[in-house]
Specification:
Number of strands of chain A: 4
Number of helices of chain B: 15
CATH architecture of chain A: 2-Layer Sandwich
Distance between the termini of chain B: 51 Å
CATH topology of the largest domain in chain B: Anaerobic Ribonucleotide-triphosphate Reductase Large Chain
Shape of chain A: globular
Number of strands of chain B: 13
Distance between the termini of chain A: 12 Å
CATH class of the largest domain in chain B: Alpha Beta
Strand content of chain B: 15-25%
Largest interface: A-B, 26 and 21 residues
Helix content of chain B: 40-55%
Order of helices and strands of chain A: EHEEHEH
Strand order of the largest sheet of chain A: 2-3-1-4
CATH architecture of the largest domain in chain B: Alpha-Beta Barrel
Structural class of chain A: alpha+beta
Largest sheet of chain B: 11 strands, mixed
Largest sheet of chain A: 4 strands, antiparallel
CATH topology of chain A: Alpha-Beta Plaits
Oligomer: heterodimer
Number of helices of chain A: 3
CATH superfamily of chain A: ACT domain
Radius of gyration of chain B: 21 Å
Order of helices and strands of chain B: HEHHEHHEHEEHEEHHEHHHHEHEEEHE
CATH class of chain A: Alpha Beta
Number of domains of chain B: 2
């Protein structure tokens, strides 16, 4: 898993219509490729995780991270973008 | 591939359990700054620090964003200044100018603390070592970011009791010199036995003579994460308890390893070590005493505390060592009183005394740390406490340290507030029976028999 451009996007918040659509639209407009999506509802809270590849993105990691945070505020959920490496380090030997 | 539960687990550690990287510390050698002209020496020191560490704070902030892991402190450690100033300094006052230069450099690069205003005098003191030590009260009073340490003993050399005696006086003088700030100067001064060369934690960090020109050392933390993990195994056997601590320590340390490698790459400075310490903060839940309570003690200090701390310290090492390619520094559980809400509560309720803390230092990293004592405590008594702690380190071949704060104008029953990560502390009673005839003997305590391994 030595792809430095892989980023984990996590979305947590109140479930509403169109959360996945809005996040995916935002990412596709910036050239970010979605590799995997998993989603669940935990005690009434919408929880989603996406693995994305930012290699061909037309914005920097910082810009995408800030943009997603703003988008999250608009939808009423918390959106985080973190490099996949930190999760690989913690959970894989 | 990483799954949603693993992502949730990591992010919960950060958002609810205070997981953080406590410090990225750059060690910087100042040997190439040495000059016999004091002004030139100061200029060289300032230039080297502000060049090598200029991107440290920005790099730390970038890693923090990319990984989503808070990095609480960015710090610098330098070669022990007693050596660096040896040919330029002809008085204690001369050394104070270097302390001020270090302070200015720390402020310029924006770090939280700079350590290394230090002397290594475990066997003997040079004239310059003594100048530096005697300059500590003024240096601590006239700087904001500089931390000082003095190594007065080791398993190999024994204990330099002349230095122990002097440090009792210096701790007292530093308290007096900073008495308008509740003797805060002593929170930045630590006396060591077996001080490591690569410790990233303050106040005792310095860049040892065995180190390269510049190096990145990282200190991880996460008492809250360990406590939460242990709350899931209440009532289970010691085997389950120990396995849980090991697994948690592994995860925490991996975060430190990731941050250290990334910082090393971005700054172009080699990675040195990860310090595996569990470092508490005054934040609720971020407490080593809290872990001891979770292990099964009503309060830290209750019978069983030393055993519980011993197993905690050992399991943290066992879990952490596999998680990092290089482990060093102090690596163990810290038990500073003022920086740990659970320890403060234990003292306030009468569960924890200075003597029990001393016993606890036999089985965990460091020693009597951030303990406020009455301001009227004599220099000889402070030296006696230092000597006891140094003996524990010397005999057990481990690092021990003393960071006592005799708070001028305060006594048992009072509380002192240091602020920030340094926290607040109740003044603890000290055994007042006299030890001055012992302290005033002069000379050295010889190295113990088990140090002769050649």
């Amino acid at each position: 898993m030595e792809n430095k451009n892989r980023t984990i996007i996590s979305v947590v918040g109140k479930d509403t219509v169109g959360i996945i659509a809005k996040v995916c639209t935002y990412l596709s407009e910036r050239g970010v490729n979605v590799l995997d999506i998993s989603q669940t509802i935990v005690s009434g809270f919408f929880t989603m995780m996406m693995i994305v590849d930012t290699e061909n993105a037309d914005q920097s990691f910082d810009e995408i991270q800030k943009g997603l945070a703003v988008l999250g505020e608009e939808i009423g959920v918390e959106i985080k973008a973190q490099k996949e490496e930190i999760f690989e380090m913690m959970h894989r030997i | 591939m990483i799954n949603i539960l693993e992502v949730k687990e990591t992010n919960k550690m950060v958002s609810e359990e205070n997981l953080d990287v406590r410090t990225i510390t750059i060690g910087i050698s100042l040997f190439d700054c040495m000059d016999s002209d004091l002004d030139k020496l100061n200029e060289n020191i300032f230039n080297k620090i502000t060049t090598v560490a200029k991107d440290l704070v920005a790099t730390g902030a970038k890693i923090e964003r990319e990984f989503g892991i808070p990095i609480v402190n960015k710090r610098i450690s330098v070669t022990p200044i007693a050596m660096i100033g040896a040919s330029a300094c002809h008085s204690a006052k001369d050394y104070v100018t270097i302390a001020k230069t270090l302070d200015r450099a720390a402020k310029t690069v924006g770090v939280n603390f700079l350590g290394g205003y230090s002397a290594i005098v475990s066997k003997g003191m040079t004239t310059q070592d003594e100048y530096l030590i005697r300059s500590i009260p003024e240096a601590m009073a006239s700087t904001e970011f500089v931390c000082s340490s003095v190594n007065v003993g080791s398993t190999k050399t024994g204990i330099n009791m002349d230095a122990v005696k002097l440090m009792g006086q210096i701790v007292k003088e530093t308290a007096l010199a900073t008495k308008d700030k509740d003797s805060l100067g002593d929170a930045k001064l630590v006396v060591f036995c077996n001080a490591p060369d690569d410790n990233p934690f303050m106040a005792g960090a310095f860049h040892g003579v065995s180190e390269a020109d510049a190096i990145i050392n990282v200190g991880v933390s996460g008492p809250g994460v360990v406590k939460t993990a242990l709350s899931q195994v209440r009532g289970e056997s010691f085997e389950v308890l120990c396995e849980t601590i090991k697994k948690t320590a592994f995860k925490i340390t991996r975060v430190g390893q990731a941050v250290a490698k990334e910082a090393s790459k971005m700054l172009g400075i080699p990675f040195g070590i990860i310090d595996l310490s569990l470092a508490p903060t005054p934040a609720i839940g971020d407490s080593v005493a809290g872990i001891l309570e979770e292990i099964g003690l009503q309060r830290a200090g209750a019978p069983g505390t030393t055993a519980a701390l011993a197993l905690l310290n050992d399991q943290v090492k066992k879990g952490g060592i596999m998680a990092s390619s290089y482990v060093g520094g102090l690596s163990g559980a810290f038990i500073p009183v003022s920086e740990d809400q659970g320890m403060i509560d234990a003292v306030n309720e009468g569960a924890l005394t200075l003597e029990k803390l001393e016993a606890m230092t036999c089985v965990c990293s460091v020693g009597l740390d951030m303990i406020a004592i009455p301001g009227r405590t004599s220099a000889e008594t402070i030296s006696g406490i230092i000597a006891d702690e140094m003996a524990i380190g010397m005999i057990n071949q481990k690092t021990t340290a003393v960071r006592l704060i005799p708070v001028i104008g305060k006594d048992v029953g009072d509380v002192v507030e240091f602020g920030g990560l340094l926290g607040y502390a109740p003044i603890m009673p000290v055994n007042e029976f006299d030890c001055s005839a012992f302290v005033n003997r002069g000379g050295r305590i010889p190295a113990p028999v088990h140090s002769f391994k050649n």
